[in-house]
Amino acid sequence: VVTPVARARNVAARLYYDSSPEADPSLIYINRKPELQFEASQNRNGDSDHFVNQSLEQGDIKQLLFLICYIGNAYKHLCQYRCEEALKLFKKLPTKHFRTGWVQLQIGKAYFEMVDYRNAKHSLELMHSLEPYRIKGLDILSTIYWHLKEEVELCYLAQKVTQLDDLAAETWCVVGNCFSLQKEHESALAFFKRAADLDSSFAYSFTLCGHEYDSNEDFDNAIACFRQAVQIDDRHYNAWYGLGAIYFR
How many Cα atoms within 13 Å fall on the side-chain side of residue 130? Predict the structure, then answer.
């Protein structure tokens, strides 16, 4: 039995792979106007509003399916750390989709993985301005502020996120980074532990704990935290790097 979800996925795949190789695949269905596609059909069948509306609805569904497939392809590249390819695809999205918090978060992640902190900062700050109540991604923004040594911006962000949601693990990672930048490692460690307690599946909090233990030269606890992070997410390379750095010494 073919489920509706499977059927939609198959249609999206056909739309993607059947597109002309000479055309820009990002624009085939995203920018196509359905009313132009069905004008001839309307003329052949008379002034049937029902037929036109049905045709327009089918065109909208095709556009939506292609958009989902296209964004999924860009996200796949990002998950594979093919950041430049992901950025090229995300940047071709129409403005109404490009200027959304989720897309800007993915763009910020891509720049972050490329160690392009300035562009990553711009994208994540745009994400925050577009969706001020979005917590996801602010932990990455705080890490960027940490790397850029922007203490004022990081302190302001820490104050803001505690007012938004004090039960989110990302909130206490932001606060912990704020104290870490000020070399208050014990306080930072306490906040990272709080983040881990709030969400035991959030690998990044354990990695940050490991780095703080490492700064205090408590290597046994650092190793334990890094191992916990890779048990949660075996692709979390930050924790693998922490383990490797300790073992190298």
Answer: 18
In total, the chain counts a number of residues equal to: 249
CB under 8 Å to 110, separation ≥6 — which residues? 78, 83, 84, 86, 87, 90
Which residue from 160, 134, 181, 177 is spatially nearest to 192, judged by alpha carbons? Answer: 177
- Which two structure tokens, joined as six digits, stand for 195? 């983040």
DSSP 8-state class, residue 62: H
Residue labelled with tokens 């430049």: 84
Closest CA to 91 of 79, 76, 106: 106
pTM: 0.76
pLDDT in tens, 157-200: 999 999 999 999 999 999 999 999 999 999 999 999 999 999 99
Which contacts of 213-217 are long-range, i.e. CB under 8 A and separated by 24 or more positions?
213/189, 214/242, 214/245, 214/246, 215/180, 215/185, 216/185, 216/186, 216/189
Task: Give 66-103 as a 3 state SS string.
Answer: HHHHHHHHHHHHHHCCCHHHHHHHHHCCCHHHHCCHHH
State the amino acid at position 177 in one-letter form.
N
Residues 105 and 141: beta-carbon distance below 8 Å: no
What tokens were used for 225?
A: 């935290």
* Structure confidence at residue 60 (pLDDT): 77
- Residue 221 CB neighbour total at 10 angstroms: 15
The single residue listed with the structure tokens 């509003």 is: 49
- Vertex 95: Cα angle to 90 and 100 (nearest 5): 70
Stretch among 9-18, 30-39, 41-50 having the lowest mean pLDDT: 30-39
